[in-house]
Amino acid sequence: MTYERGLKTRIEVIGKANSDLVTESLKDLAPIVDDWTQRAFEDVIDRPVLDIKMREMITITNLVSQGDTAPQLKIHIQGALNTGWTVEEILEAFIHLIPYSGFPRVLNGIRIAKELFEEKKSL
């Protein structure tokens, strides 16, 4: 596997604009973190057993459960849409988290998703 393959997968999932945003935000302060994120897309997300669509759902539900992950959650909700999840499926997955992660974290996740969905409508 190569760094370029990880970058290609990252762009496929979260989009070129979001990928460039990650790189730009880290280039001066912590370029190694950008390298690690691309390697995560190469070494973890590109593994063969789970498809990329399932991996994005796992990612967004994990980010909701962690809390305090708004920037990453927004990028990965876009990734979930890019990999074929519908708005309804994403929201249903968040609702499923209520007994496990709690209302506050789920409501915050839904708010972030709503912001993204509204931004997409205005484009």
SSE topology sketch:
Layout: H1 3-14, H2 16-26, H3 31-45, H4 52-66, H5 70-82, H6 87-96, H7 98-101, H8 103-122
Helix pairs in contact: 1-2, 1-3, 4-5, 4-8, 5-8, 6-8
Protein name: 4-carboxymuconolactone decarboxylase
GO molecular function: peroxiredoxin activity
Domain Carboxymuconolactone decarboxylase-like: 36-115
Structure description:
It comes from Lactococcus termiticola. InterPro entries: 4CMD/NDH-1_regulator, AhpD-like, CMD-like. This is 4-carboxymuconolactone decarboxylase. One of its GO terms (molecular function) is peroxiredoxin activity. Residues 36-115 form the Carboxymuconolactone decarboxylase-like domain. The radius of gyration is 14 Å and the shape is globular. It has helices spanning 3-14, 16-26, 31-45, 52-66, 70-82, 87-96, 98-101, 103-122. It folds into two domains: 1-49, no CATH class; 51-123, AhpD-like, CATH 1.20.1290. It is mainly alpha-helical.
